[in-house]
Design brief:
The chain has 538 residues and is α+β, with helices and mostly antiparallel strands. The chain contains 14 helices and 24 strands. Helix 6 links the parallel strand 12 and strand 13.
Length: 538
């Protein structure tokens, strides 16, 4: 599972093989089609014999919304593989008996395919946007045909870069008024469209869509938010995800996996916490503890945390929380500088690091690559005669393999701690349980039936206060009697509100029925699932 990043057809084969091998636990569904027509695949994982998947509280896990963040697909597959291979284990059996996982390992199959099979890098979709074509500027291309798009350094009096005195591979920024060295321009490897011999500017990306700016959560148009797309859910991929999540009101928790940053993110992405209900802030506080303990991630908001004061509009997790009341998170799975021991893992400890000198950090990363990885992820600068710019050197980081994604040696550790966190979160979901079921014959043919309904989960049945505000269904108990029986006292359908963790509600009825009569009690809520018990008057 961690040996390689799978292409679409390989991924598809793996998923359908799981379905064939574990028919009672795994079902693959095509939930839509990508821009290029690839089936968008979601897997339902649960013990089907123990109840319908949609009747159980569910965790939605997605990966690879961003084309190049293929490590996130890997984590999804790792989780799926683990659950199926360990479904006999009592804790996993319990999880799959009572809960469902919906796993969507590759939200952006077109983009991932482009990323994995060409030297190009792109954000989400291969649909050209906002422009049909690149008009002018430097367009990244593998001009020396080594299969990689690296960087070019070009000697120039006005260059903003110079070679580090500490390591000739490293480029450092020219200080204001710095003279007396050889200066360089540093560009992505590529060709300049419409080159006139003057200043080189970078072309606007041809594939400018960003699925995580396309959701209807404080969405704003392209000129205010790069990657937003023409309107919310304009892309078939985001539309399919939104439809899928909307059609599963049993989703309690949504996790969107990304790279990079080695940090977990929560709402909001466009505003501070003042709009977050107190109870939900506390809930995220509890999730932060779980994330730290099981996966070593700090959990911070995007706005005011990751992005300080810069809003990020149209975000999936914000949409899932704000519009559906789902407890939603993003995990930025990987960060090379953390793995290298250069950047502090903890977020508070990171602020000072982020402000510290660039040269020494880059140097440390090069040393790590040299010592831990035999230097394989940095390509030394090589002279090349560029058709437009003349003599240049091409070199730099193999970004896809180490900066954007986890190299092989780090994958097992990364996948297993994320699995741990996902299992903990899934097990924390609310769960309705009917206990203390008592039938008492108060006089011949007259029965008192009393039951206690409990939320056996760690999260409340509403999951979030936001969900309650949106008006998700509260807990309901429904009694069905045979035609020969009569209800004397009590209510056939009762609304019980929402139950806190371990919260209980006692419900009773007085029934006139023959001994041995069969009654059915059903309890349900949007998030905490549906359960059913058959009892006999005796
Ligand atoms: Zn991402």
């Amino acid at each position: 599972m961690i040996d390689k990043f799978f292409l679409y057809e390989e991924l598809k084969d793996i998923l359908y093989k799981y379905q064939a091998d574990y028919p009672a636990m795994c079902r693959v569904e095509v939930i839509g089609h990508s821009y290029e027509g690839r089936g968008l695949l979601a897997v339902t994982v649960t013990n089907f014999d123990a109840g319908s998947p949609d009747d159980k509280p569910a965790l939605y896990l997605e990966g690879n919304m961003h084309a190049g963040e293929v490590t996130s697909s890997m984590v999804c597959l790792y989780v799926l593989d683990f659950l199926l291979h360990n479904s006999h284990r009592s804790d996993i059996k319990h999880l799959l008996d009572y809960y469902t996982l919906y796993i969507n390992p590759r939200v952006s199959p077109d983009g991932a395919e482009k990323y994995l099979t060409t030297p190009y890098t792109l954000r989400s979709s291969v649909r050209p946007y906002p422009d049909r074509e690149v008009e002018s500027g430097l367009v990244p291309e593998d001009i020396d045909e080594n299969g990689l798009i690296l960087q070019m350094r070009v000697k120039h009096l006005d260059g903003n870069w110079r070679i580090s005195g500490l390591d000739p591979r490293l480029m450092v920024q020219r200080k204001p008024d710095e003279e007396g060295a050889e200066f360089y321009h540093v560009y992505p490897e590529g060709l300049v469209r419409g080159y006139d011999g003057g200043k080189v500017t970078l072309a606007k990306a041809l594939w400018g869509l960003d699925f995580n700016r396309n959701y209807p959560a404080n969405w704003v148009p392209e000129h205010l938010q790069k990657g937003a797309g023409p309107y919310p859910l304009s892309e078939p991929e985001t539309r399919a995800v939104a439809d899928y999540v909307m059609s599963h009101p049993n989703i309690c928790v949504a996790l969107s996996l990304h790279t990079t940053g080695e940090v977990a993110l929560r709402p909001f992405s466009t505003a501070d916490d003042s709009g977050l209900p107190r109870a939900d802030l506390d809930l995220y506080g509890m999730v932060a503890d779980l994330a730290k303990k099981s996966a070593a991630y700090d959990l911070i908001p995007v706005f005011g945390g990751l992005n300080k004061g810069t809003p990020s509009h149209g975000d999936f997790k914000d949409w899932a929380y704000e519009h559906l009341g789902i407890l939603s998170l993003t995990i930025e799975l990987w960060e090379a500088q953390v793995a290298a021991g250069i950047m502090p893992r903890s977020w508070p400890g990171r602020q000072q690091f982020l402000e510290s000198e660039w040269e020494s950090k880059q140097l440390a990363l090069l040393r790590w690559n040299d010592q831990a990885h035999g230097g394989q992820f940095f390509v030394n600068w090589e002279r090349y005669t560029h058709p437009q710019l003349g003599e240049v050197e091409i070199g730099g980081w193999r970004r896809k393999e180490v900066l954007q994604n986890a190299p092989y040696e780090h994958r097992e550790e990364l996948c297993s701690r994320n699995l741990g966190f996902i299992l903990v979160l899934a097990s924390a979901m609310p769960r309705l349980k009917l206990n203390k079921k008592e039938f008492e014959e108060v006089e011949p043919g007259l029965w008192k039936l009393a039951v206690t309904l409990t939320n056996a989960g760690l999260l409340p049945t509403k999951v979030t206060d936001k969900a309650e505000a949106i008006g998700i269904e509260e807990v309901e108990v429904r009694l069905s009697l045979p035609s020969s029986a009569f209800l004397i006292d009590g209510v056939l359908v009762q609304k019980l509100g929402h139950l806190e963790s371990q919260g209980e509600r006692r419900v009773s009825w007085l029934i006139k029925a023959e001994s041995g009569s069969e009654v059915v009690i059903k309890a349900s809520s949007s998030r905490a699932g549906k359960i059913k018990h058959v009892l006999h008057a005796k």
